[in-house]
């Protein structure tokens, strides 16, 4: 099996006697063991009169088996074993996965293996879980992604299984007079869930022999019906569905144009990757590119090429463009320019050196790939097991085995107007149909003969050009030798007025990559909502101005980002280190020569307004989270406040604003990875020159937070245009000590599965139900939340209060072994070693921001956790969480479906947000 020289894992591919394909992965350093099993069955296999059946079955397998009959028991076990689990249903696959501490792996597999041999399909659970599927459907009824997907399904060949409704609801899953859905569910399971249609990955620190024994013990009993997967006999689109212009009405204010070409399946060409080659050229963002010309004309904001749905007998290839208002009036022109670029590729773009350049980028990514979480690794390998030859399971995604010009030409020929479907998603167009299930207005029209003639053979604009050879490809890929002290935590190697430089050469992950963080704190940048918005505008304008010149660096394996936060802005660079100083220089030059172009400003302002206004269409629970952080953190205002400030800002205010930021700033820099100390010092000089760190006032920004103190219950209602109601309850720690972090984190860990099981699985209050840790400005916080299609805020509050009132008893009922197992599970999660350079960099950077100069906060929290006993936790629940005594904020939204119910009246409403925030510090 072809593996990366940087990958120490051992792999073994076996087939069990029941024809189950298995990949065993021994990873000596894996902090957890993980399993993923995929079945070659998805919503394409749903019976026509039982749409959503495959998805419903996926839900049901978690809810009790013969050996482990208790509903919710699997999740409880996973949680207590420091793990996580999930599943998803796709078009032709359903995939299940979990991870746990290694000592619990065999018991986890015993439970998991039962899903595929002895599920109970308990009648009460069938009845309840139908409601969970219906809630999941209703939750997304106003989700534009789902609404557009449904139109996609209705505008392809209706004899193709892609056209089926994939989620299911109470009508598709109801009991019918002749047959209960449970009987049909069992029949569907027995017909389709056959071992020869499955693939399994087991990954962990266990030896290959141990993993093989687990595979045999727990999965060899899965029945093999020998059923062959039938091929799909009909195409996704016929000539009747090609050359169509489809307009769709979104809920959010978006303007998206997609050119979609339906191709046969390309799965057999994964070694050559012809479509990657084409997408690489069409999606280029450098000078002379398709994107460059369309932006210059003022038609688009973004472009992406190569996406689209795929299946066993089709592959869509799409070019997606987000349009400006001007672009909306020039759709035919845009499409013509796209076909000009396709013609240019056909004429001049087929060169082996381009293929080799793309190949070398993928080879570098493969050679220096870093570890990911065991669960993520198992999940992507299990899909590769289904689609690639055994030797290519690890390498297949990165492989470019050879330049095949005829093959690329064959696919380019299919990117023609006759084979195109043009989809415009924008408000205010003409629509004459309504999609089923999601009520999406849309219209389908034929292309005119003039359009096809114009697009078929366009003259190529002289402004279009293919990309030049990439100057950012790295040549020196051996990491620097380790310097003395490389194993130490980050060191503060410069501490000057207004400038601090932290440095660490990475000693464990020996990859030629590095990460730089440059945090620019400026009190002026965050002194008012208006300034906060100006800061964000400047960030977007700078990113826009540098995109074209910096794009080749991204292709070569480097990335950069500039983002605003509560103190100012941060610049982050990552990826291969050799050419990062070159990229930094480019970014700083663009910053020094900044211009505030009126057209570009208008465009970016319009985009930001649209994004923030669209947030008002997000699902209620997302809006509650946004409002909560906005109410508590004055430097992080909620969307309505940002919108109000942005509407009146003009471009001529920005130059002076940037100068004022420069008059008082403080820079924290962290250089980490494959760097030497002299590299870090040289980069620091470049930064100090660029930001004139000599002649200004120096000040770190304050990051204020509203402290709840003895507030009792505070409430805040928001208005959402959504049928569902939602509630979010937030508890805040006054202290930021390791002990408090330990208590809040453990409370969340202990509550999460019980809360989910009680309020979602048993009471069926909604699909989105959970608990979460929410630390704000270093203060630990605990959140309980529900979004519900069936109950209003008053009922949701009562259900949560009932839960928190009873939870102390739940803790007292745990036996000592369960209590210790839960604690150890959480300790295992927290002490999990960093999997890669990026994760470690992130942890160090958070520590720097939190003034944890010893970099040992995590250790202190683990020590505090080890010392917590059950009495501490019961006392915390009774004193801090119980409704009668708690200081908390209750955010809520009353859904349109519940407008007839009594409004929630409890505690003290937060009146003026400005007044509320006055005491923040």
UniProtKB/TrEMBL annotation:
UniProt cofactor(s): Zn(2+)
Pfam families per UniProt: Peptidase_M16, Peptidase_M16_C, Peptidase_M16_M, PqqF-like_C_4
Boundaries of every Coenzyme PQQ synthesis protein F-like C-terminal lobe domain copy: 746-845
Chain segments annotated as coiled-coil in the UniProt record: none
Membrane-spanning segments: none
Ranges where the Peptidase M16 C-terminal domain occurs: 182-361
Domain Peptidase M16 N-terminal as annotated: residue spans: 21-150
MF-aspect GO terms: metal ion binding; metalloendopeptidase activity
This enzyme's EC code(s): 3.4.24.55
Key words of the record: Hydrolase, Metal-binding, Metalloprotease, Protease, Zinc
Keyword Repeat: no
Top-level class of the enzyme under EC nomenclature: hydrolase
Domain of life: Bacteria
Every Peptidase M16 middle/third domain range: 366-640
GO BP: any one term: proteolysis
Gene3D superfamilies associated with the record: Metalloenzyme, LuxS/M16 peptidase-like (3.30.830.10)
Gene Ontology annotations for the cellular component aspect, listed alphabetically: cytoplasm
Family (UniProt): Belongs to the peptidase M16 family.
Job of this protein: Endopeptidase that degrades small peptides of less than 7 kDa, such as glucagon and insulin.
Name of the featured protein: Protease 3
């Amino acid at each position: 099996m072809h593996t990366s020289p940087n990958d120490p894992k051992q792999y073994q591919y076996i087939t069990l006697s029941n024809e189950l394909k298995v990949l065993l992965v021994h990873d000596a350093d894996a902090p957890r063991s993980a399993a993923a099993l995929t079945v070659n069955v998805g919503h394409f296999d749903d019976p026509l009169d039982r749409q959503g059946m495959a998805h419903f079955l996926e839900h049901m397998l978690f809810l009790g088996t013969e050996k482990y009959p208790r509903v919710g028991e699997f999740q409880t076990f996973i949680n207590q074993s420091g793990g996580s689990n999930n599943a998803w249903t796709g078009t032709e696959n359903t995939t299940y996965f979990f991870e746990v501490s290694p000592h619990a792996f065999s018991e986890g597999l015993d439970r998991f293996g039962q899903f595929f041999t002895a599920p109970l399909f308990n009648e009460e659970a069938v009845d309840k879980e139908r409601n969970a599927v219906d809630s999941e459907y209703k939750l997304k009824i106003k989700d534009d992604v789902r609404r557009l997907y449904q139109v996609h399904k209705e505008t392809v060949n209706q004899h193709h299984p892609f056209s089926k409704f994939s989620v299911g609801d109470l009508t598709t899953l109801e009991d019918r007079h002749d047959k209960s859905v449970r009987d049909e569910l069992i029949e569907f399971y027995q017909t389709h869930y056959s071992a020869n249609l499955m693939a399994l990955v087991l990954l962990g620190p266990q030896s290959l022999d141990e993993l093989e024994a687990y595979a045999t013990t727990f999965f060899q009993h899965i029945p093999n019906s020998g059923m062959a997967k039938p091929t799909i006999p009909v195409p996704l689109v016929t000539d009747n569905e090609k050359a169509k212009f489809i307009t769709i009405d979104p809920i959010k204010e978006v303007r998206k144009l997609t050119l979609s070409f339906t191709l046969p399946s390309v799965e057999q060409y994964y070694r050559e990757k012809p479509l990657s080659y084409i997408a690489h050229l069409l999606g280029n963002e450098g000078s002379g590119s398709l994107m460059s010309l369309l932006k210059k004309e003022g038609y688009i904001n973004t472009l992406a090429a190569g996406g689209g749905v795929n299946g066993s007998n089709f592959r869509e290839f799409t070019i997606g463009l987000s349009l400006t208002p001007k672009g909306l009036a020039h759709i035919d022109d845009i499409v013509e320019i796209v076909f000009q670029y396709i013609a240019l590729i056909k004429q001049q773009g087929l060169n082996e050196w381009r293929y080799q350049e793309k190949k070398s980028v993928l080879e570098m990514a493969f050679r220096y790939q870093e570890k990911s979480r065991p669960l993520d690794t198992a999940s992507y390998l299990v899909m590769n097991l289904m689609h690639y030859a055994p030797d290519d399971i690890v390498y297949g995604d990165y492989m470019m085995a050879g330049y095949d010009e005829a093959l690329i030409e064959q696919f380019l020929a299919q990117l023609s107007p006759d084979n195109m479907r043009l989809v415009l998603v924008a408000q205010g167009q003409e629509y004459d149909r309504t999609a089923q299930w999601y009520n999406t207005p849309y219209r389908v029209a034929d292309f005119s003969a003039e359009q096809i003639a114009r697009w078929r053979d366009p003259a190529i604009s002289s402004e279009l050009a293919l990309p030049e050879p990439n100057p950012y490809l790295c040549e020196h890929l051996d990491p620097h030798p380790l310097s003395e002290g490389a194993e130490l935590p980050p060191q503060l190697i410069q501490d000057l007025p207004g400038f601090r430089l932290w440095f660490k050469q990475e000693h464990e992950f020996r990859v030629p990559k590095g990460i730089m963080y440059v945090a620019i704190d400026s009190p002026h940048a965050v002194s008012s909502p208006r300034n906060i918005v100006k800061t964000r505008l400047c960030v977007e304008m700078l990113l826009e101005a540098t995109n074209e010149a910096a794009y080749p660096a991204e292709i070569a394996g480097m990335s950069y980002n500039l983002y605003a936060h509560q103190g100012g802005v941060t610049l982050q660079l990552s990826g291969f280190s050799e050419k990062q100083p070159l990229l930094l220089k480019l970014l700083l030059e663009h910053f020094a020569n900044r211009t505030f172009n009126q057209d570009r400003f208008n465009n970016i302002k319009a985009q930001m307004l649209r994004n923030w206004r669209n947030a008002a269409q997000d699902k209620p629970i997302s809006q509650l989270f946004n409002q909560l952080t906005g109410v508590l953190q004055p430097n992080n205002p909620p969307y309505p406040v940002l919108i109000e400030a942005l509407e009146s800002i003009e471009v001529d205010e920005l130059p002076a604003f940037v100068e004022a930021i420069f008059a008082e700033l403080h820079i924290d820099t962290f250089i980490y990875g494959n760097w030497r100390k002299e590299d870090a010092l040289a980069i620091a000089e470049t930064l100090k020159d660029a930001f004139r760190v000599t002649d200004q006032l120096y000040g770190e920004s304050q990051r204020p937070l509203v402290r709840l103190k003895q507030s009792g219950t505070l409430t805040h209602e928001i208005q959402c245009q959504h049928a569902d109601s939602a509630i979010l309850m937030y508890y805040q720690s006054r202290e930021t000590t390791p002990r408090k972090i330990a208590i809040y984190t453990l409370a969340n860990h202990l509550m999460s599965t019980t809360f989910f099981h009680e309020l979602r699985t048993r009471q069926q209050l909604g699909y989105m139900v959970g608990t979460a840790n929410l630390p704000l400005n270093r203060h630990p916080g605990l959140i309980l939340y529900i979004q519900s299609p069936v109950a209003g805020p008053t009922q949701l509050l009562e259900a949560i209060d009932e839960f928190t009132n009873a939870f102390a008893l739940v803790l007292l009922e745990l036996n000592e072994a369960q209590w210790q197992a839960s604690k150890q599970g959480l300790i295992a999660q927290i002490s999990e070693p960093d999997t890669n350079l990026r994760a470690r960099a992130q942890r160090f950077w958070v520590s720097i921001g939190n003034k944890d100069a010893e970099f040992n906060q995590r250790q202190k929290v683990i020590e505090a956790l080890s010392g917590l006993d059950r009495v501490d936790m019961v006392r915390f629940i009774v004193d801090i969480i119980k409704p009668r005594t708690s200081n908390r904020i209750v955010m809520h939204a009353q859904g349109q479906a519940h407008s007839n119910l009594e409004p929630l009246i409890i505690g003290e409403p937060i009146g003026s947000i400005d007044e509320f925030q006055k005491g923040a510090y």
